[in-house]
Structures are given as structure tokens and as C-alpha cells.
Amino acid sequence: MKILTIVGARPQFIKACMLSKEFVRDDVVEEIIVHTGQHYDSSMSDIFFEQLQIPKPHYHLAVGSHSHGKQTGKMLIELERIMIKEQPDLVLVYGDTNSTLAGALAAAKLLIPVAHVEAGLRSFNKRMPEEQNRILTDHLSTLLFCPTDAAVEHLKQESITEGVHQTGDIICDTVNFFLPIALEHSSIQKTLELEKDRYFVATIHRAENTKNCQQLMELLNALNSIGEKVLIPIHPRTKKMIATCKMTEEEYPQLHVTEPLNYFDMLALVYNAKGVLTDSGGLQKEAYLLKTPCITLRDETEWTETVTAGWNRVVGRDSTKIMEAAKKLQVPKKHIQLFGDGQTAKRIVEIIHNSFYN
Which residue numbers are catalytic? Predict the structure, then answer.
């Protein structure tokens, strides 16, 4: 059985690694990996393949950064060519990026079954490109692997019930497997002279938070006023905006900006942090798995379970709310298993086998 796996962005590499490990062990599955090149910087791409021991991609499209339409269009053209050549039995996509949608659409047009890992997530904000991508991908998919019961229910509300499976979250597998390795080998905390529980980790990359100088400046001012050191692994989009706005480090003495971090360093830093401030969906979930309180710098979240459990607070972009939430941050007494047992990859492979051979 030939499976064509499509990845293109940092979160997808992290999700794909555990499933690729299972495919390597499988005598029946041949995995063909396609890297679209949506994330092309070495610090956001190559290092993850090396650290997470993901097999080298068979194809690298080197699409790069473009407008949504141009980027997705270039991917569609190349992915269709590869699918016609390889004739896969199944196309596997992850998450909610343009790579996800392009892979699902190219496969569906060629009548190749699509499997969507992390299906059923909804922010209910259709202005988000990620929300558009995940909705369209779910409606094109044959197998939908949902991380939570809520995701299954979202699909049910859209009349998607065939091929839906609650498998747990693949990121739970990744965190469980790599956290001990990260804590043993990462020296980033010592290098940056950060004391455990005396700093925050922040990430800012979404368009609504980086679209203009005023918005970004207010966010950085809020983070700078928390009263603790804030480490910011900088996203290329945010870095470009900071340069455009001519912001300087001297204006924000509490902020420590670094280049994007590898997975081991990021795991270790979040694990030992006092809290996380982020507009990333994936980091909200990782913070929960690492038992680190999170403040979400958006008006909504796909991971509502983390909010209900008391580990995540959604505050939007208001600087006063951000500062208040950070200063009142506490570690909840209870931490329940929201995202599965760390066996999601094995479960997905079993479902694929059953779907194709029964």
C-alpha cells in the first residue's frame, strides 16, 4: 500500500514524525513524503527532520512564501503531477495550512482517498485562513482522524459521520516520546540564563497580530509590562514586521527575542516556563500537555477543552487583559487527560489497515 504524505510547515513536521515511525515499522505501507516548502527556512524545516528523525522527503516543491492563492495554486500543480506519477492508494494531510488544502484538493480531483489528521477542529471564525482550510479539507476527506470528542461533534454538526474516528491527538505521542530526550539534551535554558518558573515563552505570528505596527507594538508593550522576562522565538513574518516598524530591543528590555528554536529547546523551555503567551493553536495544546498555563492572544481557540480545564485563558489582543491575565496566572490543581494516551499513531495505522483490507 502506497501512502503519499504531504507536509510543509513546522507544526506538520512535529505531527508527522510519530506516524512516519509507525509506517517504517509496517511491512505493508510504503510512505512517500512530499515537502511543499511552505516553511523553507532551515530553522523551521531542516532541523525538525533531523531532530525528529523524519525520513528525508522524496519530493521537495520549494514553493516558498506567496499570497494564499499563488502559494496554493503552485502546490496544486506540483502535487497533481506527483500523484499522477506515484499513483498512491491514500493521500495523508495534517492540520490546516495551505499545504493541507492543496494536498486534499489535488487528491480529491484525482479520486484518491484523503486522510486528514487533526480533523474536526473549529474556531468558528471563517475569516481565519486556517479555518477555511480545515473545513474544506474535512469535507474532501475519506478518513477523518479527530483528536477529541468535540472534534467528532463538530463534524457531526456538518453532517460528516462516515470515516470519522476519535483517535486521540498525535501531538500527545510526540510530546511523550521526545520530552525526556529534550530535557536531557537541551541546554537552552542555561545558555539564556533563565530560571525555572521565572520566565514566559511567547509566540506571535498570526496575521491579525502582525498586520500593522500599532497592533504589534501594543502586543509587545503588554508583554514587556508583565514583570517577568519573556522569551520570544521570532517567526519570520513577525521579524519582518518588527524591522518594518523600526522597533528596537532597547524599547522592550523585558523581551528576549531569539531566532526560531528547534523542537527540543522549545519543549524544554515551555516545560520549565511560568507560562505561555501565544496565538498558535499547536502551542496552546503543547503547553497543556507539558502542564504549563497558557494565555491565548486571540479572540477564540480551537482547543476549548484547555479553557474548560482551566489551563488556558483566551484574552484577545487587549493589552490590559494580557497584563492582568499574566499577573494572575496560576497552575490549576487538576490536570486531566484531554488528548489521548500517546498511542494515536498506532491507532491511525490500524484504522488505515482495516479500512483498506477489510
Answer: 205
